[in-house]
Amino acid sequence: MTSHVKLRKEKVGVVDYDTQIKEVRCQLVDQLKVLDLQLEQKSQQLQDLADYLRRRGEIESEYSRSLEKLAEKFTSRIKSSSEDVSGLKDPSSHSVAQVWLALLSQTRQESRDHNGLSESCSNFLIQPLTHCLEYTQRLAKKSKDICTQLQDGLLKVTTELQTVSEKPTTQDTSRFLNMQNKAVPCVSVCRLGEHTTSTTPTMWPPRGS
């Protein structure tokens, strides 16, 4: 009777351990998925920002040219009108002409300002964003490689633990605990590459080992 109870406890312990191993492997897969998802989101955000600045630069450039054409068109008209009334002594005519000149001068200044904004959007801001996107992709690749290496080491240890747990002996108990101690730091380091909170179940040797 006692032997049957002990055997059943051992089987339950092995099943629990196998379940924990599967959970660990699922969490390792989820870690890599999180890294891929974060890279995709950040890359898309940076790409969208670069597209916005590029289009904004084009719009500002078009607006700058339109303002310049508008100023040139009415400047020629004002000069023509001033020449026609140059012989008349009408203070109001000169006053309106001065207002026109001030308005056209302001229009040209706005044209230059928008042209400068166009240059900033098209050149000075897009280039750093491109470098940032490339750096983000390199950093993500390096992080994924490190995480994959650590996961491979962890899976190797857990495979050995599973082998020992299936056929436990007195001599294997010490070896089991040593490998378990190796597995814990691997789990902790793997978590450094994961930006979401997750809990890795604690592993223990099945009863009766």
Automatic annotation (TrEMBL):
Keywords: Coiled coil. PROSITE patterns: F_BAR (PS51741). InterPro entries: AH/BAR_dom_sf, F_BAR_dom, FCH_dom, SLIT-ROBO_RhoGAP. This is Rho GTPase-activating protein 4-like. Residues 15-209 form the F-BAR domain. It holds the Pfam family FCH.
